[in-house]
């Protein structure tokens, strides 16, 4: 049954809210004291209290199924923190907000400190409202892959007159020139900050900075996650799922990784394989990968259809490739068992695209051409759900940036309930339609 997730009372915009709260904190012009300080503090405390109550009310309206039930119903939502994104402060806050918004899974880098940050965010969310825990998934690769790279350059090599298009194009605020002057003097003449250049932990490898540098100063550095370290990670009791990114063209690499992971995969509840659309070869590739996994596969499996990698934040058109991929797979008769889930370019337009194709929570294609589960022996939804990455991080990231500019970089979002409420509303606007929640 559909439930409402937006409160009917309008919460003021951030600007209105802070004008309202801070206006009574302006010093008295005669004696320079804060005449209104005590009432303002009380008012601020009341506002924070109301925000917490609103957060609880919103979350308490959600009727969440278990992650596995969501996959069967076709309303699974996964938050992708980014296979290479390692900013643990943002990751913790994103995990907290999206846990409250009801995601089924949080996918993150296969790194111990990142996994800990995700779990910390989840538990902080569950301290606010008692709700079920989303699965934690780690992402690894079997070979060179776009999701497993970082940009790199030496800012000392940058010409003084460069307008820094790299900084403007970066969606992750991962390029910084803190040594710049704010008074019109070239940043190159100001002392360099040790943080000038690419902030490695924030770079998630989207590659948008690479072609825009007019001096060709930016390099990409690729890496492959270590299989032994991954095996150790998935033995942790706070890791539930793993995703293997593969091109599918070199199944020997996939097999090597699968064998190196050994019995550790027995600890998992779900194993996902993320692959690009290789047109006519896709189904045969999936069948080959499945045959490699099958002897040691003791849990559910999922195919992540990576339409247009790391592009969901760009705009409406970015989601077309993931929808086309879903249509192609839904029609395929010989696909191996496993849930199907969209990714790569997914954003607020994806759900409408799926509905137009008759694929949202459907067990058969709208025009009746093909049986939904012709090759999977089960009655689950044709498309298990959607994973959101760049777009999900962008909409909540705006709130996080605003909060951090006021309170500093390490601020836990639950300490600032007014920001938590704003972030939760953003997250619910994305997650809600997949979960069939109604907007007011
Ligand atoms: S690769 Fe993407 S995230 Fe990394 S620095 Fe370049 S633009 Fe930013
Ligand atoms: S665009 Fe290239 S040259 Fe200019 S600041 Fe960025 S990396 Fe340096």
UniProtKB/TrEMBL annotation:
Domain 4Fe-4S ferredoxin-type: 149-180, 194-223
UniProt xrefs under InterPro entries: 4Fe4S_Fe-S-bd, 4Fe4S_Fe_S_CS, Fe-S-bd_prot_LdpA_C, LdpA_Fe-S-bd, PSI_iron-sulfur_center
Keyword terms of this UniProt record: 4Fe-4S, Iron, Iron-sulfur, Metal-binding
Gene Ontology MF terms: 4 iron, 4 sulfur cluster binding; metal ion binding
Protein name in the entry: 4Fe-4S ferredoxin-type domain-containing protein
Species of origin: Lupinus luteus (European yellow lupine)
